[in-house]
Specification:
single chain; mainly beta; six-stranded antiparallel beta sheet; 12% helix
Amino acid sequence: MNDNLDYCCDMKIIVLIPTLSLLLSSCSLKENESPVAGKVQTDMIFHYSVLKALDNGVLEGDMNVSDLKKNGNFGLGTFNTMDGEMIVLDKIVYRVAADGSIVEPGNETLIPYSVVTNYKQDGSLKLDREVDYDHLKSFVASAIPSVNQFYAFRIKGEFEYIKCGGADAQEKPYNKSLPEMLATRPVYEKNNVKGTLVGFWCPSYIGDINTPGFHLHFLADDHSIGGHLMDFKAGSLEIGYDIKNVYHIVLPGTDMFKNARFRDAGVNY
């Protein structure tokens, strides 16, 4: 055993990767608590549940909006039964309902999956030409300091066109994969709208825990449209990023999670 490892009292597993601490625990951190000596919470991604669970019908969690806010002021996710897309921006949690309306859910609203952080910008990039989602992906992959690190991204712009996906509440038994659940998802489109893309970029080794590459949600400044980013066109973008080197996973304590039988197939999302 390496004597230099530091332990958190509620920790089950610590896996150390160069410059990255991956923490797995069964309860959330207290506000401003640091899981690794010398680190502050602004360096940490807080991840409730895992993508593999969502893809295998674990659609009811035991964390509520109030507790989620204690672990981050920026991020994304969904709500129990997949009843809407989540955007967390500037300490406010938003829910994009299936009909496209955007509301602030109550603090007791439960969630099955979310990824949040305290955003503190480390660097910025600028795109001053016509750009779409594919161009953004390739540009960022070539411009970030390392493709082996995690990042939170906050991207602002005036979008000539944007296409977002929503989420419909599912009914039991929750036996569909994510692509099956989202095949008939509501889709929202709008021209000439200002807003912010909120989300994360994960390395390819994240596997079934999170989405490799970009996962972004959008919120219009006037709250006229929001949801999971599917496509866009913009004349320019202001791209802010926050490098993250601590990744904290909290697993649901529900019987639904404990008793789930995950398919062997990887997550296709």
